[in-house]
Amino acid sequence: MTTPIQVGIDIGGTKMLAIARSSDIHARSQITTGKDFSADDAQKAIDRFIHTLSTPPDSIGIAVPGLVDPHGVVIACDVLPQLVGWQPAIALASICKVNVLNDAEAALMQVVSNIQPQAVAAVVMVGTGIGAAIYAHGMVLRGANGWAGELGSIPIEGKTLDAQASGAAILQELGVDIDRLSDLVAAGDSRALQAIEQAGSKFGLGLATLINLLNPEAIVLAGGTLRWQGYLEAALESVERHSLDDLRAVCSIEVSPHGGDLVALGATRSILKC
């Protein structure tokens, strides 16, 4: 007898990762995305991945870097604007049950599987953009419209946190692409390292805001921007300066051990929560 297969899809600003999990299957596929990546591109990539599996999946969780309405329609996505209007749950309805959700919330689904139900915790994603998802006393805090966690939109010194601390902000500040930034960092370019450090410091202000507002026990960080030399260190120093001592003392801040798989893994779990 075959065991159920859960598929998780993480669609981000630079890549799309698909994984399939069961007791005896672990498949994965990754492709490049970008600003021109469309809903049709995503749908075709998902279809190709599903057809590589030995049996159809029992569920598919799809995580996107934007806002999703209660019907699974992508209604806002600054990172990948051509996904707006996409309705994957309808397109894939003939195959299996589908859940579409924000990428930070998907990451949270994986994180909360290992914490106490009464904990207060947050996941913060920092990649092309910045977003958060919050868990408190056994519940995901989604807000009145289901869009709570737009950490990248908070104002910091006249600009949004996204505009100052995200991966996209670093690239824009330097006028380079991600490959060139990698070269500059490897060469020890002072301007590039300074831009990364400054962005990290601003990111720390966002984390301090979460700590001061929510008094969480844990904040789990994930996303590609964390890998840049000096970014995380600057963020943690900023947290020390700008969060209240008593609140910071009870809050652990850790980078997810799941690395780039966190969102896709959480997406496989999300179908059980919807």
From TrEMBL:
Pfam families: ROK (PF00480). It comes from the Bacteria. InterPro entries: ATPase_NBD, ROK. Belongs to the ROK (NagC/XylR) family. This is ROK family protein. It comes from Chamaesiphon polymorphus CCALA 037.
